[in-house]
Amino acid sequence: MRFDIITLFPEIFNFYFEQSILSRAQKNKIIKIGVHNLRDFAFDKHKTVDDKPFGGGRGMVLKIEPIYKAVRKLKAKKSNKTKVVLFTPRGKKFNQKMATDWAKLDQLILICGRYEGADERINKLVDEKVSIGDFVMMGGDLAGLIVVESVARLLKGVVGNSESLIGERITPEKGFVEYPQYTRPEVFETKGGQKWRTPKVLLSGNHQKIEKWRKGHSKVIE
Ligand code: ADE
Asked: Which helix (H) or strand (E) holds 143?
């Protein structure tokens, strides 16, 4: 699967994607990530990507031309399993079901906005407007990282040991988050003399009971 990110801050992405699991997934050719600087698609020699809003008002607005040019260039011509996403706090809230659906695509083009927003005509270019939560950030870049990571990890072979996903009891539409886990020591003693214990059932060796306890303590996200 291919991810194409359109951003004004490519360095943030390049640094992150060079780390550990996503870097390995790229080397193993399970995913391809293209990070594109929106300024490279600007039309003028000053590489202008934003302008004052018509009608006046605060802030700057991302211009339509560079975004249009970038999406046109990046969109795979041969596949229809491709989606163009714009990050905005006004979008539909991202969830595990969307991550699962998007993991079936060939290509995700992620537009990370900045400033006060983008020229409204961007709607003609995007398939979906997405928010990662009910809060306002300074731009969509962190949202882009979050979406790449949550979609990529669902692709076969990305999380090295497939047990890690099985442990979560991931079902495509309902993703269980992991149940609570403990490791040695069995009892951890704090400086103040408190004893933080591992639940006895997990030390019992009774797999049926352990399974039941884990089910009871799994949090379902839908
Ligand atoms: N840009 C600013 N805030 C955002 C949010 N919550 N989700 C996606 N993009 C954003």
From this structure: helix 141-152
Ligand 1 pocket test, candidate residues 5, 7, 86, 88, most atoms within 8 A of CB? 88
113 Cα: distance to centroid of ligand 1 (angstroms): 8
> Under CATH, to which class is 2-152 assigned?
alpha beta
Residue range 11-45, pLDDT digits in tens: 999 999 998 799 999 999 999 999 999 999 999 99
Mean pLDDT computed over 197-218: 97
Candidate of 135, 145, 146, 148 to mutate for ligand 1, largest count of ligand atoms within 8 Å of Cβ? 135
Confidence of residue 174 (pLDDT cuts 50, 70, 90): low
For the domain bounded by 167-221, which CATH number is listed? 1.10.1270
Q: Where in the chain is the domain with CATH 1.10.1270?
A: 167-221
How far apart are the C-alpha atoms of 182 and 185, rounded to whole Å? 9
